[in-house]
Amino acid sequence: MLTRLLLFAALQLAGGALGGWWGGPWAAAGGACAAAWLWFAWDAASAARLLAWLRDGAGRASPRLHGTWGEALDRTHRLQRQHEQALAASEARLHTFLSAIQASPNGVLLLDEQGRIEWCNQQAAQQFGLDVQRDQMQVIGNLVRDPAFGAYVTARDFTHDLLLTRPAANGAAPTQLAIRLHPYGEGRTLMLSRDVTQVQLAETMRRDFVANVSHEIRTPLTVLAGFIETLQTLQLNEAERARYLTLMAQQSRRMQALVQDLLTLSRLEGSPAPGLEAWTPVRTLLQRCAQEARELSHRVLPAGAAPHQWEFPDDASLQSAGEIAGNEAELYSALSNLVSNAVRYTPAAGLIRVTWQPQADGGATFSVRDSGPGIAAEHIPRLTERFYRIDRGRSRDSGGTGLGLAIVKHVVQRHGAQLTITSTPGQGSVFCVRFPAGRWRASRAHSPAASESTAPSL
Ligand code: ADP
Questions:
Q1: Residue 38 counted as domain residue
Q2: CATH number where 115 lies
Q3: Residue range 372-421, pLDDT digits in tens
Q4: How does pLDDT run across 145-174, given as a tens digit for each residue?
Q5: Given Cys at both, which of 36, 108, 313, 337 links 317, Cβ 3.0 to 4.6 Å?
Q6: What is the number of the ligand 1 atom nearest to the C-alpha of 392?
């Protein structure tokens, strides 16, 4: 400001001096006055140029100004640059923030005071079948036309989730959405949606499982209680007592088997998958399976019935059957379950064939073929579900718990192997477990210790 005053004073002095030199004191006063007007005109023109530039939005090239107006222009420039930088930074922050919301597995919608969609992420668009561009500023109630949603919005009680079933496109299963509204700001609403289809499915499965277990335990318990009451109240002879006790023992064995299988399943679910450190000779596993299968066969076939016909790998091929990496008890449980199913479901004189076959890719396949009743195609995909049985009575009569194949599936998956079931009704079934290359190795030098080992139980 001082410079500006000095400049103004210097110009007047110069005008006055020039006027005085030219025509005396009146001319000096006139010169000073003319210099003041000249300065004023130049100053006003500079201010007008600056204002015109600012009025245009400071977008085009800035005017060349000097002195105070030049400095004002520079400062305006600097402020404008700072403003642009702050704007860019806040835009970048907004972009990061929106990207984070886009990455959310949940749907997010921002609604204005009238319930119109101001913004929504892709998840929400997918869950509600919205078009992010087209449906912007559309009222959400017009797009989610479910009476339950309308009632939820009207009631304005947002302390709990609303569960909505949304029809899926392309004939897929409908999805279950948990929706919650959160009011914020002045009349605005944040709407969150979560796909809970899997959670609901797991909950249904858990409920079915508990119901199944209760039912499976209640049946033998009821029978046992009946027998106990009979023994307590009736005078029985020795033969009757013995028969009742045999039946009671059968029922308690059934419960024991069920509890044992449940514990096995829970251990399989709760422990990490077996690594590649421990190797079990295939010979040990198959010899144990064969022995147990023969004993089971004696128990399940009626007295005097023609025995099962067996085909097991002979000793020579078992010597070179190699080793599998994993948990020995689990592996034994899976393979023996398949063999014992073949025994239990194959009628007298039927054929049971167990093979072990190294594969060209470095893996190996275990298979059990039987000449039993076979399984209709529609049952095959469901056989590994817990408590899924084709013939409930037959399964129970032969001591089945309905959990055998569920255990097999778990063990097989934990060992990176694959279970395949092929069957022709009336002709028999084949259950194959294919171990991948890394899980099987050819036999090392035969070790007597290995051949005598007894597998631990699960
Ligand atoms: P279960 O204890 O009832 O045998 P599993 O899980 O082992 O339970 O088997 C499930 C069902 O699969 C059985 O109830 C039976 O109907 C069928 N199944 C299993 N193995 C065979 C087989 N070898 N032949 C015919 N059906 C079989």
A1: yes
A2: 3.30.450.20
A3: 999 999 999 999 999 999 988 777 777 789 999 999 999 999 999 999 99
A4: 899 999 999 998 999 999 999 887 677 788
A5: 313
A6: 14
What sign has the CA pseudo-torsion 230, 234, 240, 242? positive
**Is 132 part of a structural domain of the chain?**
yes
When pLDDT is averaged across residues 25-41 and rounded to a whole number, the result is: 90
Q: Whose CA is nearest to atom 11 of ligand 1?
A: 389
Name the residue of 395, 396, 409, 420 whose CB sits within 8 Å of the most ligand 1 atoms, as the mutation to test its pocket. Answer: 395
Token pair listed for 347: 């009628």
Strand pairing of 117-120 and 418-424?
unpaired
The residue out of 177, 195, 213 marking a domain boundary is 195
Please report whether residue 387 resides in a domain: yes
Specify the amino acid at residue 283: R
Q: Tell me, what CATH number does 327's domain have?
A: 3.30.565.10
Show the beta-strand stretches assigned E in 236-395: 279-281, 309-311, 323-325, 351-358, 364-370
pLDDT the model gives residue 108: 96
The CA R_g of the chain, rounded to the nearest whole Å, is 44
Into how many domains does the chain fold? 3
Lowest mean pLDDT among 56-70, 313-327, 431-445: 56-70
Q: 124: which 2 tokens?
A: 């929400």
Whole-structure pTM value: 0.69
E strands, 36-174, are 107-111, 117-120, 162-166
SS3 164: strand
CA distances from 85 to 78, 80, 81, 91, 318 (A): 11, 9, 6, 10, 77
In this structure, are strands 428-435 and 364-370 parallel, antiparallel, or unpaired? antiparallel
Q: Is residue 446 part of a domain?
A: yes
Distances (CA, A) of 63 to 40, 60, 90, 334: 19, 9, 30, 87
**What is the mean pLDDT of the segment spanning 354-358?**
96
Is residue 188 pLDDT above 80, yes or no? yes
Angle CA 390–394–399, to nearest 5: 115
Q: What is the DSSP letter of 383?
A: T
